[in-house]
Write a structure and sequence with these properties.
The structure is a homodimer of 206-residue chains. Chain A is built from ten helices and no strands. Chain A has 206 residues and is mainly α. Chains A and B meet through helix 1, helix 6, helix 7, helix 8 and helix 9 of A and helix 1, helix 6, helix 7, helix 8 and helix 9 of B. The structure holds a DNA duplex (18 and 18 nucleotides).
Chain lengths: 206, 206
DNA sequence: GTCTATACTCTGATAGAC
DNA sequence: GTCTATCAGAGTATAGAC
């Protein structure tokens, strides 16, 4: 799980309970959405009583917000790590691979995010229009530079980034569908690694 | 909106109200998810009282189910239309374009579907494991044949289909994020048309 | 810090008049 | 067919004992 607020709790027991609540909340919110989740479910998953849960967080909304705000940074880290000085094709391929890795390692976080965006992002619009947009514009400019220098193919940089999001997050967000279609024998993420390597190699080759 | 059950109502007023309820329900369910939606919201959007709404449908679940079951066929129509006798590259490109068209014309239906899958598809697993999987396997076999005949590049047919879903549906499901990042001046779907043409041309070129 | 008990609101669904 | 009134249960949150 994402470590949201390492400096928050004072005592050991507080730290442990806060941690348990956020872990449980991630599990429940990502699977049910904000309104679909109940404090009962979260409390039970965290091994606490409902009032005790509300001793640590003032409201359901506060728990959700804590998860979301902590998630944004983690979510953007791979894109932030894309190095303007690096080798263009390797930087883009590595970004894609890190994103796919995140889908595999943190599918619940991906679904939490997806649930929120799907419903109009009522609780994180500011983050999207702020940090997210700024970072994407900055990296899009870098990618455009690479394209103009002939290092990669001339593709729209914003949509290149969208395509990386769409393709990698699909394997986390639509996991049940992917597995139902492929059947129990196949390994979605391993195959996705191969497939997406091919796809993006062909897309960005100059 | 999708015309779900044209033969259902008897009188004109019944037809009109049933239609209004399904239209309103699509609006609300797609934006809020199943549990997030309330009968009050749907009733208000349909211009009816809550008891009157429940005169036409026995329960909230029944309305949702009616939407979902009608949607599956519409959703699969473009893939079903892919012709094994057609020109391989054109067939795949046209499938992708029809899917993107559906994302633009029916974003609410796309989000209804996405909400359901994200939450584990509790109300449509049978459809996914049945009709959907059967159709995908059938078309994947066709695509595999094309690849083996050298008509298109050798890519995994299942993941090719997933990539079409992921990339086209992304523009409907994550619409608010796409627009927030691109800004108000740009036209996401027009640009996506260009970008995805390029992407899939390069991916499947032999 | 944690629990029991409970207040209060929202929501899905029904009864019954018109 | 449609409405007003209302019920029962779920769900968020608080009070107060320990």
């Amino acid at each position: 799980m994402v470590d949201i607020s390492p400096q928050r709790p004072q005592t050991r027991i507080q730290r442990r309970n806060t941690e348990a609540i956020l872990e449980a909340a991630l599990e429940v919110f990502s699977a049910q959405g904000f309104r679909g989740a109940t404090l009962d479910q979260i409390a039970q998953a965290a091994g606490l009583s409902k009032p005790n849960l509300l001793y640590y967080f003032p409201s359901k909304e506060a728990i959700h917000l804590e998860l979301l705000s902590g998630l944004m940074d983690v979510w953007l880290a791979p894109l932030r790590a894309m190095d303007p000085e690096g080798e263009p094709r390797a930087e883009i391929m590595n970004y894609m691979r890190r994103k796919l890795e995140m889908s595999r390692e943190m599918p619940r976080e991906s679904r939490l995010f997806a649930n929120e965006i799907l419903q109009g992002a009522p609780r994180m619009m500011e983050g999207i229009e702020g940090d997210l947009r700024t970072l994407v514009d900055e990296k899009a400019a870098v990618i455009r530079g690479w394209a103009e220098a002939g290092k990669i193919a001339a593709v729209d940089p914003h949509h290149l980034i969208f395509s990386i999001w769409a393709l990698t997050q699909h394997y986390a967000d639509f996991d049940v569908q992917v597995r139902a279609v492929l059947g129990p024998e196949r390994d979605p993420f391993a195959e996705a690694g191969q497939f997406l390597d091919t796809l993006f190699e062909r897309l960005i080759a100059p």
